[in-house]
Amino acid sequence: MALHFERAEFASRLTRLTDQMRAEKLDAILLFAQESMYWLTGYDTFGYCFFQTLVVKADGTMSLITRSADLRQARHTSILEDIHIWVDRVNADPTLDLRNLLVDMDLLGGRIGVEYDTHGMTGRIARLLDAQLSTFGQIVDVSYLVSRLRLVKSPAEVVYVERAAALADDALDAAVELTKPGADEADILAAMQGAVFSGGGDYPANEYIIGSGADALLCRYKAGRRKLDANDQLTLEWAGTYAHYHAAMMRTIVIGEPTHRHRELYNACLENLQAIETVLKPGHTFGDVFDMHAKIMDERGLARHRLNACGYSLGARFSPSWMEHQMFHVGNPQPIEPNMSLFVHMIIADSDTGTAMTLGQTYLTTADAPRTLSRHSLDFIGA
């Protein structure tokens, strides 16, 4: 089987999950998030674009219900043994198959948790599921139960996060080598992604962000490529990915002579990131990180040009996003603990002057100061 972790690691994760389920008095949980299934069993697929769910009982029993196309996928990539297939057909309602499975698993009348807040749960599936289970038992939204368990990485996971970070560094090297006046964004993007693949990495859970000129102020991917001018700006956000674990980075490269505004915004980004490192450790919360970000940006008169979040937790994720649920935004009470992999980004988009500046990297938290996972410095990058 194509397992990325030892069976003892999976057994430990299942114990942590069932302990938490008993604490919340859950008889079972229905996992719809692909990353939850991957973390718990190794199951690796993009078949979550269709209906599938992993049923986990409080006694540790697990049963997967999925389509026939994923039967061999589950057998080959996971520790799962009990796999049920719902049949593709006109007007199919696989939630009926799920209800019948829950009856067979002696869960009628039980307290059942459901992962609703995930890309594997469409609105249609949620409506069908609620209709089937409305009189079946007590249904509870536990969208963040496994997500919280995944925040702290095991030693085995840290190895993959570090490998992903090395691949992210390789991608930056590839980008810097090609970035110059007249360079094509397409070539830069291909070199970055190629560096990750050549290093044994994977597709990222979302597209890389690349934009120059006016598009450098964007912080989402969009279709279309251009060539760099003699004086230009290029914003890149990407992630090294290994065994689905991500380590993200972000930079704005200035081509030609930097403007005074470029330097000013870079200094704000650097000061902010260095200040955040003083609170990115146990004893502080995710909200504290954002408060530091907002304080420095606002004191520099950049309130209109900053975002309302400055990073998030990273881990093993599947399309369409490499972001985990926990973000650095105002009021987030999530405590920072050792062995979290956290991406901190400074994004300034000054639409008044058309100036972009970004700076971001992934950290591994420790008992004290965070450890940056990049071999690159935070120096200004020009071309």
TrEMBL record:
Matching SUPFAM superfamilies: Creatinase/aminopeptidase, Creatinase/prolidase N-terminal domain
Protein name: Xaa-Pro dipeptidase
Lineage: Bacteria, Pseudomonadati, Pseudomonadota, Alphaproteobacteria, Hyphomicrobiales
Residue ranges occupied by any Peptidase M24 domain in the UniProt entry: 162-366
Domain Creatinase N-terminal, first and last residues per copy: 13-152
InterPro entries, alphabetized: Creatin/AminoP/Spt16_N, Creatinase/aminopeptidase-like, Creatinase_N, Pept_M24, Peptidase_M24B
